[in-house]
Give the backbone structure.
Amino acid sequence: MRHLLGIRDLTTEDILRLYELADRFYEVLQQPTRKAPALAGTTVALLFFESSTRTKLSFELAAKRLGADVINFSAAGSSLSKGETLLDTALNILAMGVDAFIVRHHGVGTAHFLAANLPVPVINAGDGTHEHPTQALLDTYTLRRHFGRLEGLTLAIIGDIFHSRVALSHLHIAPKVGLRVRLCAPPTLIPPLWYNLGFPIYHRVSDAVKGADALLVLRMQKERQSYPPIASWEEYARFYQVRPEHLSGGQVLMHPGPINWGVELHPDFVHSKASRILDQVTYGVAIRMAVLYAILRQ
Amino acid sequence: MGEVVGSRYLGIYYLRWVQRIVAEGERIRLSLRRMAQQIIERRTPFALIGIEPRGIIVAQAIHKYIEMAVADKVHLGSLDITLWRDDLHQSTKLRVPRPAHLPFPIEGKSIWIIDDVLYTGRTVRAALDALREVGRPSEVRLAVLVERRGMRELPLAPDCVGFILDTHPSEKVIVRLEPVPVIKIELRQHEASLGD
């Protein structure tokens, strides 16, 4: 693995090795000092052109737990406002001595562009509506920890699939790890071509959750919706909100965050036992340690 | 020295594996039993930690003899030092660490680190660092089945040794306990075979 640009480029073997590494790093995180100096002497740059809480902190913590130095770039307050290009920005940071870039950008393919133009590894932390590989890895890893396996499990992805990079990464990872994925959204929030991919598509939450082992609820991405795909948030909540009765079959609940309570998720889930949402965040650090280790130490 | 155990023709070279058996069977079992006795004699409470992957089998063997001698349960754990290696950045392939297995607190105990062969001492250095992440033992001791004399790159010495061997850096020391215990020195010889 030279870069991590998308799940698309990973083989089943790569993914299983990342899970194996994550198991070990999760152990390290349980130790009193929570540290292993496997990346000592390396420097990682976080290039975030889009806002983020979990991914950014999680990557930063993962790098620090492995002993790497981290430098942080955020678009606000940078020379981008003076007209500096993306590549110039990256090259200048590279000139300060950096071993890997972790990039989030609203433009699809930004990580691929940087990977093609920089001599160091690039990790995609989300490019527009395209891919968010570490999220799909940590979601499946959370399921794997919970169920002890992935083969044969059914995951229902419910929400704004059209604008979701998480959904596409899941479509790529599912066949590689033996996960069955089904999609559920209003017809206006499913890309038309996805009807031909062979994944079951539902337009009713109650149908989608029937027989599923886990639900991955996605946020309504208002900031990306260039035209109104639904009449109102209230209407969306009425027909597509995941409520406690949808988990009557013992399904596990996941959400990549941030959550709009009362829109895609019922507020009763805040303290729900079925919710694995905070586990996802915990395992996210271990998975990102695995990704950094696999890329920087091979 | 020793017997030729394999050869392969590589272009103009012959690669030959030559090996010499240093000890076998009962001699090794006796040494392990003596090491177990030395560990018991030092002080209690103690625990054994084998270093992955091959230190484990030596630790298991010593553990067996200790439990036979003291007729009591003795803690046995394992430690993988991959993440603490000082040559990780030089490695060309991805090293996947194995899970550590330390089902007991090491705090305040006398910890015996056990490995099969002590060579440069770098593995032991890494093990000391890895141990520090887990807790603070009252003391750490080192037991190895084979000490390769004069090869240390760090100021470390074992507290309990099975065999001391004089070897050349090009030689490899191989320890096997199953099915029959054997310690052997292996050397790969390149021989030009022009006109062969």
User: Anything to note?
Assistant: The first helix of chain A runs from residue 12 to 30. The mean pLDDT of chain A is 94.
